[in-house]
Amino acid sequence: MSTKAPKRRRAASLDKRKARGGYLFVLPFILGLILIYFPVIIDSFRYSLSSMTFVGGGAGFNVEFVGLDNYQEALFVDTSYVTTLINGIKSLVIDIPAIVIFSLFIAVILNQKVLGRAVFRTIFFIPVICATGIMGSIAAATSSYNDYIADQGQSINTGALDDGGFQMNAEKITMLFENMKIGTELADFVVGAVNRISGIIERCGVQMLILLAALQSISPSIYESCSIDGATTWETFWKITLPMISPMILVSAVYTVIDSFTSESNQVMAYINKTYSEANGNTKSAAMAWMYFGIIILIVIVVVAVMQAYVFYQRRDN
Amino acid sequence: MDNQANAPKVLKETKNKITVDFERTSLKERLKLKYLNMSYLAMLIWRFFRFLLLMGVSYVILYPFFSKITSSFMSAEDFVDVTVKLIPKYPTLDTYKAIIVDLSYFKALFNTALLSLVSAVLQTFICCIIGYGFAKFKFRGSKLLFACVLLTMIVPHSTIKLSLYMKFKYFDVLWITKLLGGGVFPWLDIIPNAETGMFVNGTSLDLTNTLWPLAILSLGGLAFKNGLYIFMMRQFFRGVPDELEESAYIDGYGIMKTFFLIVIPLSVPMMITVFLFAFSWQWTDEFYTGLFFNKTKMYLLPHLVGQVPRSLDTQYAGQSLFEAAIQNTIGLMIIAPILVVYLFCQRYLVEGIERSGLVG
Predict the structure, then answer these.
(1) Residue A292: is its pLDDT beyond 60?
(2) What part of A 29-68 touches B (C-beta under 8 Å)?
(3) pLDDT tens digits, residue range B23-61?
(4) Hey, are the CB atoms on A269 and B64 less than 8 Å from each other?
(5) Tens of pLDDT along A210-261?
(6) Where is average pLDDT lowest: A6-20, A124-138, B95-109?
(7) Is A152 domain-assigned?
(8) Touching A: B residues 132-191, CB under 8 Å
(9) Contacts of B331 in chain A (CB under 8 A)
(10) Rounded CA Rg of chain A
């Protein structure tokens, strides 16, 4: 019998080592957060409370604390900020449900066996890649021109540049809804959605991907047992598919809110950017942006709180 | 016996083969039953409308491209000719030539390709690491940190626009440059500027018009939509079974070795997806382009927008149409390279997302 105990270095437990590994992997983000992001956020808040003057020759800048002056100016002196804000939020309230519903619909269809599914998928995700950023502003620049042509009723050559003739005649839809005796709110919603259909389709890409992935993750055996029990496709959709993917519907709804509120093509963002570039380094734009950020947070919280009540979480064994 | 009476009639019986005759509905009858009923009809109608709908949506997506492509080949006369609809009567390549020559397209293309490639590669790798850290390790504060990831997604760009610019215009993390006492740092200059290079104002570095701002943001996982990439990566790694890594640990691999030799090869489709997003969104980005890059010092593709090539004479009746067509052509030339990249990578896009099991 050997009494010699093996000489052992006290090794950290697996849990401890894994915790350390976790910090190691997340380290880039922690560093970025501490060194860049938080200072930037704090600076931004500081700028929104102060006025800034540049010292000549790019040598530096002076920051002077002015309190809530910037906020006051944005809200009460600037005539168009509040109206832009209200209009922007109104149009987004129309767009966001439309985007979520549309992307859910397309995801469900693309999940079925459709003729040429691969081709359709390729086409549907093109806007994700190509319709962002600078392309959006080109489209905006040329579409205002198209609207002008449509207003003038001129018969000159617009065929080359229109967006496919999807500016539907709003009056006809309104008439249809008036005949159906449904409230004007719904009519407004549909008219707004139809008029912006190409914009809505272009913003559906990522949500479609998320929902498609969610649909694929539902176990086929659930559908099988449903069909054995005699459920129709319609019932299966409402009782199985929708509850199963509801967490991802929440995710895509939140993503839609964030994406449409922070996209550069959004009119409020455009207005803030305009204020920023008018006087290079105008601190009023920071104040505007902070108020806007507050509204976004509020809307995200409301959306999450409302949808959380309907979301179904499947209980897993592990 | 009943059984005997209902049994099929034996027509012919040999040693190893038997032919029986039983009452079978005729083929015609069977086809009728299968295809001539309401549910089959309903399915046909549904399939037809489904296909029609997909075609319609594809049309909405593709039509702008089609109209932009055709109008980019139109010559100046086509825009005043009322009879020209979509198909140009006098096709010409002048618009393309003018953009390439007058607006130095290839210079912008090279700069943008370099910028997008550097930041996309960095972002893919960094977001992969961070996502893995969030997915597989439990440590104190991980939930709070993940909330910070979501925060970086929610904060609108314009909120941090001014301070981000100031940060990189007067770059001085931890007062390092102040300690160094200022001076010119030529070794930091990746893209040589026409002017002084990276100039230093007193105690801080001016990093605008270099690759550094985006490289630094990418390294911290803070660049454009990096929160989304981290989220996607995290969800993907949560779907990878823990047993895989546990068996690697048992075989004597450390955490790092497991990550690089086992996990990274697994996650290639997802990384391609993230790379595709990062690359193309950086390519068409106007926020950072407008913020950090000056047209004269660092010429990028988004800077082309809004310019009219000198050699094209737009002072005539169809001016506004012609100028809009020029802008659309510029747009086409900006996205053409990423469209090619997309067509090669799109297989991975859906595959990566499907395999990710985004539902955690």
Answers:
(1) yes
(2) 29-33, 35-37, 39-41, 43-44, 46-47, 58-61
(3) 777 888 888 888 888 888 888 898 898 899 888 888 888
(4) no
(5) 888 788 778 888 889 998 999 888 889 898 888 888 888 888 888 888 888 8
(6) A6-20
(7) no
(8) 132-134, 136-140, 142, 145, 148-149, 152-167, 170, 173-174
(9) 134-135, 138-139
(10) 27
Provide the pLDDT for residue B127.
Answer: 92
> Which of B228, B235, B222, B263 is CA-nearest to residue B135?
B235
CATH code for the domain of A238: 1.10.3720.10
| Both structure tokens of A275 | 């204020």
pTM: 0.78
Q: Which of A24, A40, A104, A260 to mutate to probe the B interface, most B CBs <10 Å?
A: A40
Q: Which fold has domain B100-171+207-356?
A: MetI-like fold (1.10.3720)
Range of the domain at A230: 31-52+61-67+204-312
> Which residues from chain B sit within 8 angstroms of residue A137, using beta carbons?
286, 305
What ranges do the domains of chain B cover?
2-72, 100-171+207-356
The residue among B87, B96, B286, B68 whose CA lies nearest residue A142 is B68
How near does any CA of chain B get to the CA of A192, in Å?
17
Q: Is residue A171 part of a domain?
A: no
What pLDDT score does B122 carry?
92
The number of distinct structural domains making up chain A is 1
- The residue whose two tokens read 């894994």 is A18
Q: Distance between CA atoms of B359 and A154, rounded to whole angstroms?
A: 52
Is the Cβ pair A125, B164 closer than 8 Å?
A: no
Does residue A185 belong to any structural domain of this protein?
no
Nearest to A213 among B152, B160, B353 (CB): B353
> Can you say whether residue A294 is alpha, beta or left, with left for phi > 0 and alpha for psi between -120 and 50 degrees?
alpha
Of B61, B158, B289, nearest to A272 by CB-CB distance is: B158
- Give kind and range of the element (H or E) at residue B18: strand B18-21
pLDDT above 60 (res A8):
no
pLDDT (tens digit, 9 = 90+) per residue, B22-33?
Answer: 777 788 888 888
Asked if residue A120 is part of any domain, the answer here is no
Chain A contact present for B56, CB below 8 A:
no
Contact B167 A39 (CB under 8 A): yes
> What 8-state DSSP symbol labels residue B76?
G
Q: What is the mean pLDDT of chain A?
A: 74
Whether A189 and chain B come into contact, CB under 8 Å, resolves to no
3-state secondary structure of A155: coil
Residues 72-131, chain A: which have Cβ within 8 Å of B? 106, 109-110, 112, 114-115, 120-130
Read off the tokens for A309: 């009540």
Residue A64, classed as helix, strand or coil, is strand
